[in-house]
Design goal:
The structure is a homodimer of 241-residue chains.
Chain A lengths: L38 E5 L4 E3 L7 E7 L2 E5 L7 E6 L4 E2 L12 E4 L3 E7 H10 L1 H27 L2 H18 L6 E3 L4 H8 L3 H13 L3 E4 L2 E4 L2 H8 L7
Antiparallel strand pairs in A: 1-8, 2-7, 3-6, 3-8, 4-5, 4-7, 9-11, 10-11
The structure holds a DNA duplex (30 and 30 nucleotides).
DNA sequence: CGGGGTGTTGAGTCCACTCAACCCTGGTGG
DNA sequence: CCACCAGGGTTGAGTGGACTCAACACCCCG
């Protein structure tokens, strides 16, 4: 059975440890060195956490669930620019301008912490280590975007899908779930928008990869059958000269 | 005559004022509240400032010239992920990992400041205002990447070119140069790599836009003849339902 | 004068898109 | 219970835009 994103596995080791910690059983916030209390918030599937243009008030570490960020695209349907899972920080797009630049929507029932940005700044100022970790996360976000940029610029649809699946696999793995068998929460349309493809193309190519015995896809349940094969496709450009 | 990027206009008002200031005439560094001395460095056209994988030591505000950042693409030719002009901060891609993730090359003879990152961190810690400005720049970088992402995902070649030209125009304008007549320092190949197009396509479409009387292109000298027209093309998707 | 880097232009191909039909599933209500 | 519907997903046929391959023009520089 595929691991669900929404399964909360009690004690969590994730990137935002130190920003905020909460007693899973009681829901009560714990004060600890370099940590501070924060409220949490449930978001039902399809509901919006914040909209592009809203004022920055909080940064939201994801505790459970899966969300997508969309970038308003003037007339056309909004473009998906990222997906968030547990341990990701939502809201960094507002840093700099003071306004969120994307709209964040839950893909399934999700739970996030709410870190007041002002409070976070205060704590970062006092705690060098915390600040550094925060910067690290900002930088990682930046790099992941540049990676996506490189992908959209130069890859074929098949290469993009293979890369996307491997990256999802890596993220699940980093969270302690199976890296070869998981459930993706986004629709074909979401994936297509994110990868710069039409949903029909996403569907077709997922099945092509299945025909090639590289993976098995059943609705949103995905199993990687031949990781080296997928990697070969993801990096197809360095094949045979 | 088109304004050259490399023309240094003496007293500069730009985003990194406060990070570093230097007496333009003597080259001597000036100490001022919230500012600190820094070395500067000349880079000849074609030379590399740093390579992907190098350890982060400095952040480089651009004083003059134009540079490109390329992302290593495993086998294929590296992908251009950004261009830097005066007042841009080069090196932010290393924040988080501690290693630069891109290779930065000068497109023309350029000049950058060298801010030791350790020193910068120290100063940011002591100077709240400086830190905030630094974060602002980080955030802006992030947003610009997400904008590019949206562009690559959903736009046609013509829309991409129009958007790119308008964005270059805005950048020149922000630096105090003409917004309608300027010289782009990058090759068709660079532009194509950045926009996810082949250089032939870039060339063809630039001339198509010229045929449409929207701009005039002569080598790298570019003049915008019909800004509203360009904007209409850049946002083509919201035309006539 | 030759050579490399850059840019333009043409002809033909292919990949991803568009348009369209259809299936499956879950939910709702008679 | 079944009918109906909406959202998501699959599959097919045909089109078009960007790519590939290729030739050639231009310019600077040695």
């Amino acid at each position: 059975m595929a691991t669900s994103l929404s399964a909360n596995q009690g004690s969590t080791r994730c990137a935002f440890d130190g920003f905020c910690r909460q007693d899973a059983s009681s829901g009560a916030a714990i004060h600890a060195p370099g940590e501070f209390p924060c409220a949490h918030r449930h978001i039902k599937a399809g509901q919006v956490l914040y909209r592009a243009g809203d004022d920055l008030h909080s940064i939201y570490p994801v505790k459970a669930g899966c969300l997508k960020a969309t970038f308003p695209a003037e007339g056309s349907r909004d473009q998906v620019v990222g997906f968030y899972m547990r341990s990701d920080l939502v809201g960094l797009d507002a840093i700099g301008s003071g306004k969120y630049s994307t709209t964040v929507t839950a893909l399934e029932d999700s739970e996030v912490c709410m870190l007041s940005y002002l409070q976070l700044e205060d704590h970062c100022q006092q705690n060098n280590d915390l600040r550094r970790r925060f910067e690290t996360l900002l930088g990682r976000e930046l790099n992941s975007d540049q990676g996506s940029l490189a992908m959209l610029g130069s890859m074929t649809a098949q290469e993009r899908l293979a890369t996307f699946i491997l990256s999802m696999s890596a993220r699940f793995s980093a969270l302690g779930y199976s890296s070869s068998e998981f459930r993706i929460q986004m629709t074909r349309d979401d994936i297509g928008s994110y990868l710069g493809l039409r949903l029909e193309t996403v569907s077709r190519i997922l099945h092509r990869l299945q025909d090639l015995k590289l993976l098995s896809i059943n609705g949103r349940e995905l199993e990687i059958l031949d990781r080296p094969g997928l990697e070969r496709i993801a990096h197809a450009r360095n094949e045979g000269g």
